[in-house]
Every structure is written in structure tokens, then in C-alpha cells.
Amino acid sequence: MSTQYTLVETAPARLTSISSRPKNEAQNPSWGPYLELTRFSKPAGLLGAYFPYFIGFLYSVNLTNPTALSAADWVKLSAIFLLDGLILRSFGCAWNDTVDQDLDRQVERCKKRPLARGAITTSNALATTLILAVARHVLYYATLPARAGQHALLTTILALTYPFMKRFCNFPQLCLGVGVGWAVFLVDAAVVDGPYAAGSAAKLNAQDRSKAMIAMFACQTLFNITYDTVYAFQDIQDDLKAGVGSLAVAVRHHPKVFLLSIASAMAAFLWATVSCGGLMRGPFQAGAAVSSLAALVMLARLNVWDPRSCRDFFVHSQWWVSGVLVIGLVGELLMANF
């Protein structure tokens, strides 16, 4: 017998000042709340931010010249992308919590966040956000080509925009999905414009390569939208009461239809990455097949009204979709090199 849920809807959220704070706000917080603010205390969420970097990196190298990078190049670029993924996630979380502190106090899962409970001052949270934002752009300026830094600037702008969208519309997940998925273009610029591919014969012409990268961007964006919409269902009861917008709110009457449709589109673009990229040796094809099937099966079995089921989907889908794609792309590189 299925469980029935009553959704209580209210008027849209009123935009409030980010400086609004509880009376018991701390003046001299310890380091603990800062680790919470930046999510360093919850490293599992880094998977969602970093996988698009590494998938885009592996895919771009496969399209350019699978034998061009030395072991030192692989270590250097992987470390830079991992560090940026960590900084971007922490910056985004700190900024989101700063803007959303008044709304977070109305959501059961979020009301114990450091800003919402008054463990950090708003000014200190803003300073933390600024330091992280500057740090990632210094990192790119010091280590990667200019075009990669330009792509990084766009993702910073999208991260700054994201928390405001939930106050005015139900599509913040679109902003987040595009921002996270844009890592595909960022890492491709680092590979194409860097010294690693200099003098090497590209596998694809510019037009075909562009199609392949757009397909991979669409695939990653749609997957990000899928898992973040599922994640948003954890808070849908509180969000409706507070007037917070999300795709979960928008599709609450037919969630499975929406999620399975998005996942199907993701699978279609994933197969376009196989075709447009000319990766026909077998490993990436197998990875695409397993990833597509896993996403659809997990969504078919998902109970969006069970918060634990939503959390489990977020973690498991990272490995069964993105993790499997990484294995397939690594397999392509190994076959090309050996």
C-alpha cells in the first residue's frame, strides 16, 4: 500500500537581506563552523562537482591525442581540477548558505547550518566566500591557459546566481546543472590550449570536436539536473511552506515522468558522445550502456517521497553513472596507448 503525502503550498518566498541574523549569532566562532560552511566536513558531495571535470578531461584527451600527455602532465592537471572542484564546491556552499540563511531556518534539514543557527557572522561568511572565489581564479591564472580561466569565470557567475533563482522561479537546478556541467568546456580549453597537445595531430576536426564536446556537456548537465532534483525532494515539504522554488516543486505531481524523461535525454546525449567522438573500441561504449541503464533502473526504483532514498540515489548514482563513465574512458586511453 503506497503512502499518501499532503503537500502544503504557500506564497513565493520574499527576498530578504542576507545580513539578517538570529539574536544569538556568534561573534568569535571556532574553525568547526567554517568547515561546515564550506562542506569540508562532508567530502562525499565533492563527487558531484569533480566527476564532470575528470570525465571532461578524459574525454578531451581521447579526442585530442590519447598519447600526448606524460605521467607528470596527468598528475598536474588532475590535481588542479580536483583542487578547483573542491574550491568551487566550498565557495558555492558558503555563498548559498549566506544568501539562504533566513530560508534555511525554515527547513528542517538546513536549520542547523552554521549561519542559520548563528555560529558564524554574515560578514565572516562573506569574507570566506570572497577568499574562495579569488583563490580559484588565482589558481587558474597561475597554472592554466587564459581560455580555461574565462570558462572558470562563467561558472563563478552561475554559482553566484544560483541561490537567488529559488526565490523567483522553480529552476535553480538548471543553473546548477549548467554550472557544474560547464567543467567539460573548462578542462577541454586547458587541454587544447595547453602545451600538452602542441604539435600533435588532432583526431577530429574543429567542427566534429565541437559537436562531441557539446554532447558531453549536455549529458553532464542533464545528469546534474537529475540528481539535484532528486536531492531537492528531501526538503519539498518545508520548501512549499517557505515558498522556496525548485524543480522538485515544479514537477511534484509527476516526478517519475520528469526524471525518467531527463535521464532518457541524458542517455541519448551520452550515446552521441560515443558516436561524435569516434570512441568505438568498446570500453566507452560499454560504459555508456551501463551508465544509461543504471540511471534509468535507479530512477524507476526511487521513492522520491523518502528522504533516505533520495540521499542514497545521490551517492550511488555518482558511482554507477559517472564512475562507470570514467572507467570506460580510462579503458579507451589504455587501448590507445597499449
UniProtKB/TrEMBL annotation:
Transmembrane segments: 44-62, 174-192, 257-280, 286-305, 317-336
Keyword Membrane: yes
Subcellular location: Membrane
Bilayer topology: Multi-pass membrane protein
Cofactor(s), by name: Mg(2+)
GO aspect biological process, one term: ubiquinone biosynthetic process
Assigned protein family: Belongs to the UbiA prenyltransferase family.
Protein name (Swiss-Prot/TrEMBL): UbiA prenyltransferase
